[in-house]
C-alpha cells in the first residue's frame, strides 16, 4: 500500500492561482467529439486523467485516445485513472479507434494506454494494430504514441513502436528523488533506458514531467541532462494538480516565469523542443512535435 502524505490545513486552504483557471468545455466541436467518443465506446485520457485542457483540445476537434481499457495495473499516487485488474482486452479496439479518428478527420492523433502488467506482451499487439489500422484508414494522419513502462520487456517495446507512428513518448513524470512516492512501481533509470532504446530504433522521442511535487530546480536540471544524454528530443513540463484528496498533494504552484526559465534551460542542455507552462500536459500542442 502506498503511504500518501497527510493533507495539511495549509494545503486545504491553498487556492489555485489565476494562471491555472480554465474554461468549462463548451461549443459545437466539443459536442461533436463528445458524441463520437460515446458512440464508439472509446476511452480518452482527457476524461480519465481530468485534463484541464479538455475544453480547448476537444473544442479544436482533437482528443487523446486511451486504448487497452481504463483500469490500470499500477497505483501511481498522482494519477486519476482507476487501479485494479483490468477486465477487458478488446481485439476489435484497433479498428474502432481507427474509424473514430477517420470520422473526426484529425490530422494528428495521440494514442496512450493504461499499464497492462498482467499481459505477457504488455498490450504491445493492440498498440501495433491500432497504429497500423489508423494509418490504413487515414494515411495522411500523423500519430504520437504515449506508451507505458514495459518493465524492460524490450521485445514488447519494439512491437509497440513498429507500427509507423511518427513520435513515441514515454513520461518520466517526476525527478529521480520522488519516484518512490510518485511512481512506486516504476524506476527512473529504466524509463530513461526505454527512451534511449526508442531513439536508437529511429523514432522521435518525447517525455513529460510534472512540477510542483516538491522537486528542486537542480533536480529538474539534472533530469533534463539525463534526458538529453539518453536521446530525448521533446520535453513537456506542466503543473501537477491533485485530482482528488486521496492523491498526493500539491507542494507548490510553479510561477509561469519559472516555467519560462525551464524552457530556456532545457534547450540549452540539448533538448530539441521544450513545451513548458502551468497547463501543459504531455499531449498539449502535440501536433507541433512531429517535425522538431
Automatic annotation (TrEMBL):
Cellular location(s): Cytoplasm
UniProt entry keywords in alphabetical sequence: 4Fe-4S, Cytoplasm, Iron, Iron-sulfur, Metal-binding, S-adenosyl-L-methionine, Transferase
Pathway: Protein modification; protein lipoylation via endogenous pathway; protein N(6)-(lipoyl)lysine from octanoyl-[acyl-carrier-protein]: step 2/2
Cofactor entry: [4Fe-4S] cluster
Highest taxon of the lineage: Bacteria
EC nos: 2.8.1.8
Positions with a binding annotation for [4Fe-4S] cluster 1: 46, 51, 57, 283
InterPro entries: Aldolase_TIM, Elp3/MiaA/NifB-like_rSAM, LIAS_N, Lipoyl_synth, rSAM, rSAM_sf
Catalytic activity of the protein: [[Fe-S] cluster scaffold protein carrying a second [4Fe-4S](2+) cluster] + N(6)-octanoyl-L-lysyl-[protein] + 2 oxidized [2Fe-2S]-[ferredoxin] + 2 S-adenosyl-L-methionine + 4 H(+) = [[Fe-S] cluster scaffold protein] + N(6)-[(R)-dihydrolipoyl]-L-lysyl-[protein] + 4 Fe(3+) + 2 hydrogen sulfide + 2 5'-deoxyadenosine + 2 L-methionine + 2 reduced [2Fe-2S]-[ferredoxin]
Cofactor binding note of this UniProt entry: Binds 2 [4Fe-4S] clusters per subunit. One cluster is coordinated with 3 cysteines and an exchangeable S-adenosyl-L-methionine.
Enzyme class: transferase
Entries under PROSITE patterns matching the protein: RADICAL_SAM
Domain Radical SAM core span(s) in chain numbering: 58-272
GO molecular function: lipoate synthase activity
Binding site for [4Fe-4S] cluster 2: 72, 76, 79
SUPFAM superfamilies, A to Z: Radical SAM enzymes
NCBIfam families named among the record's database cross-references: lipA, PRK05481.1, PRK12928.1
PANTHER family: LIPOYL SYNTHASE (PTHR10949), LIPOYL SYNTHASE, MITOCHONDRIAL (PTHR10949:SF0)
Assigned protein family: Belongs to the radical SAM superfamily. Lipoyl synthase family.
Name this protein carries in UniProt: Lipoyl synthase
Classification of source organism: Bacteria, Pseudomonadati, Bacteroidota, Cytophagia, Cytophagales
Gene it is expressed from: lipA
Amino acid at each position: 500500500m502506498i503511504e500518501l502524505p497527510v493533507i495539511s490545513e495549509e494545503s486545504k486552504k491553498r487556492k489555485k492561482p489565476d494562471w491555472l483557471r480554465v474554461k468549462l468545455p463548451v461549443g459545437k466541436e466539443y459536442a461533436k467529439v463528445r458524441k463520437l467518443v460515446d458512440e464508439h465506446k472509446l476511452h480518452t485520457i482527457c476524461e480519465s486523467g481530468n485534463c484541464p485542457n479538455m475544453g480547448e483540445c476537444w473544442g479544436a476537434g482533437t482528443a487523446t485516445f486511451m486504448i487497452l481499457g481504463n483500469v490500470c495495473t499500477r497505483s501511481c499516487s498522482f494519477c486519476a485513472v482507476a487501479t485494479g485488474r483490468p477486465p477487458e482486452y478488446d481485439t476489435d479496439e484497433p479498428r474502432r479507434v481507427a474509424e473514430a479518428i477517420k470520422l473526426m478527420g484529425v490530422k494528428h492523433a495521440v494514442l496512450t494506454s493504461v499499464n497492462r502488467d498482467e499481459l505477457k506482451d504488455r498490450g504491445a499487439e493492440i498498440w501495433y494494430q491500432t497504429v497500423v489500422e489508423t494509418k490504413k484508414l487515414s494515411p495522411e494522419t500523423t500519430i504520437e504514441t504515449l506508451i507505458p513502462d514495459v518493465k524492460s520487456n524490450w521485445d514488447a517495446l519494439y512491437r509497440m513502436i513498429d507500427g509507423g507512428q511518427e513520435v513515441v513518448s514515454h513520461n518520466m513524470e517526476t525527478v529521480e528523488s520522488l519516484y518512490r512516492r510518485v511512481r512506486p512501481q516504476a524506476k527512473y533509470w529504466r524509463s530513461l533506458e526505454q527512451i534511449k532504446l526508442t531513439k536508437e530504433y529511429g523514432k522521435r522521442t518525447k517525455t513529460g514531467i510534472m512540477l510542483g511535487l516538491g522537486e528542486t530546480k537542480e533536480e529538474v536540471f539534472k533530469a533534463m541532462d539525463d534526458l538529453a544524454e539518453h536521446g530525448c528530443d521533446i520535453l513537456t513540463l506542466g503543473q501537477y494538480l491533485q485530482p482528488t484528496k486521496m492523491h498526493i498533494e500539491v507542494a507548490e504552484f510553479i510561477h509561469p516565469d519559472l516555467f519560462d526559465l525551464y524552457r530556456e534551460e532545457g534547450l540549452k542542455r540539448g533538448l530539441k523542443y521544450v513545451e513548458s507552462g502551468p497547463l501543459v500536459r504531455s499531449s498539449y500542442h502535440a501536433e507541433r512535435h512531429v517535425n522538431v
